[in-house]
């Protein structure tokens, strides 16, 4: 459904008012779409915000050849795809760094932090960490294995401090649940 010229003119002449109307009209719908794509609440919030920032920044380019709704959905789909690509790239980089770290552990046994990592590997904790979703895994590794502060991790991952603190808490819970499930399985199994 194409927009009438008067509607198109109203959008391009007052983009701030238009974006408020657009967010009121499509906000919940787009958020649901993004959640279905990403299946993660925190990422959904971030990407939904990115979608509406992009809509605001690019509203002047909207020509009305398609419906406004489909234009916004295409922006949302692209933002979701980009987010998933970034996650895959982070995952690949993390695996690469960990592989390098594992090889250095065997050559530098005298370093206590490296020794701790080796002990953790031997006890299976590292495998449990690696089973975590990437966004939790990277925070655990940077915080516990690399001993970086939350502020340092914020700079590395380009995330808000509150987001990373929340991820760290969630990752601890996931690890605890995983360990308790394994111990429960051994006791009951």
From TrEMBL:
Gene symbol of the encoding locus: sigM_4
Family: Belongs to the sigma-70 factor family. ECF subfamily.
Protein name as annotated: RNA polymerase sigma factor
UniProt keyword annotations, A-Z: DNA-binding, Sigma factor, Transcription, Transcription regulation
Domain RNA polymerase sigma factor 70 region 4 type: 132-175
Gene Ontology biological-process annotations: DNA-templated transcription initiation; response to stress
InterPro entries reported for this sequence: RNA_pol_sigma-70-like, RNA_pol_sigma-70_dom, RNA_pol_sigma70_ECF_CS, RNA_pol_sigma70_r2, RNA_pol_sigma70_r4_t2, RNA_pol_sigma_r2, RNA_pol_sigma_r3/r4-like, WH-like_DNA-bd_sf
Domain RNA polymerase sigma-70 region residue range list: 24-88
GO molecular function annotation: DNA binding; sigma factor activity
């Amino acid at each position: 459904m194409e927009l009438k010229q008067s509607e198109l003119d109203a959008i391009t002449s007052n983009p701030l008012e238009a974006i408020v109307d657009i967010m009121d009209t499509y906000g919940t719908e787009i958020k649901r779409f993004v959640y279905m794509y990403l299946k993660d609440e925190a990422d959904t919030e971030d990407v939904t915000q990115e979608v509406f920032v992009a809509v605001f920044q690019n509203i002047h380019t909207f020509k009305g050849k398609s419906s406004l709704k489909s234009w916004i959905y295409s922006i949302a789909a692209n933002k979701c795809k980009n987010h998933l690509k970034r996650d895959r790239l982070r995952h690949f980089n993390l695996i690469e760094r960990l592989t390098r770290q594992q090889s250095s552990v065997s050559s530098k046994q005298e370093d206590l932090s490296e020794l701790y990592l080796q002990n953790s590997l031997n006890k299976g904790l590292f495998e449990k960490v690696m089973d975590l979703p990437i966004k939790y895994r990277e925070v655990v590794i940077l915080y516990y294995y690399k001993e970086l502060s939350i502020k340092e991790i914020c700079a590395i991952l380009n995330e808000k401090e509150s987001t990373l603190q929340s991820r760290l808490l969630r990752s601890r819970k996931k690890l605890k649940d995983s360990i308790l499930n394994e111990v429960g399985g051994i006791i009951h199994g």
